[in-house]
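Table S2 (continued). Query chain:
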Amino acid sequence: MKHDSKIYVAGHIGLVGSSLIRNLRKQGFSNIVTRSLKELDLTRQADTEAFFDSEKPEYVFLAAAKVGGIHANNTYKAQFIYDNIIIASNVINSAHRSGVKKLLNLGSSCIYPRSAPQPLEEEYLLTGPLEQTNEPYAVAKIAAIKMCRYYNEEYGTDFVSVMPTNLYGPNDNFNLETSHVLPALLRKFHLAKLTSEGNQDQIKKDIEIFGKIPEDLPLNKDKVLLWGTGSPLREFLYSDDLAEACIMIMRKYSAKDIGEFVNIGAGKDIPIKEIAEIIAKIVGFSGDISWDASKPDGTPKKLMDISRIKKLGWQPKIDIKTGLKKYYGWYLEKSGLKPNHIE
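Corresponding output:
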């Protein structure tokens, strides 16, 4: 991949896509193609094929997806499996039809069986039942991995897949009905802090920017109520670390070098309860944290084995506390506040 190569980033406004754009530009890549959802709906096959036939990108980062946390995955099961399968199918097949040199498909660590041994090695795929709360999304992501593999085998394409762990960073989804755990935690603590300060104007602004507050989430200045028990262990990777890994793979390695797919993670996990305490401190919330054990915890532990990606020459740079401070700093700037009180 040369600096003037034509690169299409599908899903460029999201957490992963926007990080890919930032880091591609930082590394000197300037011929980057993007399309908004209004300009191109990747669930429509004819439109997707017409785009590829017209633009003829040389390299494709497939970061477009319908994503969400436990609540969203459990509520919108049909939407999650349909949208993600159709997006992957349309982009992968169109890339083949138009002669794309290389495609990098981004998956998710939820592809692994719920009770797989830890840490999760690439070979554990399809060795047991999936976690039920996100099975539709996982099935779609597994289908995309297999599509890339079999297109390579049948058509000689160079389509690689990477499986990131839980991600966070700028342009994350902070909608409390559909977000993953980290953005949900950060926003809940931030709103509680604003409530304790009596800052109703800023709460209104927060709702305008990041979405409405669910009716079953009353704002409390003294306490934040969180889902589950706080006991599950999770691994978190800052989005810029992922972007650097993806760009390195696109530049240096082919599918034959990495196998069916490769894990990308932080190599360390941490209890959700501890993450909540760290975020509360960074945000400056001094009230109580309580847990609703009637809500699902999801998979008990999910740690990626990243030995394969390390052998390729990559390792994470941003530790969780540093990343969370950067994360909250971005959130405050997006909210029109100065990030000058982050601990």
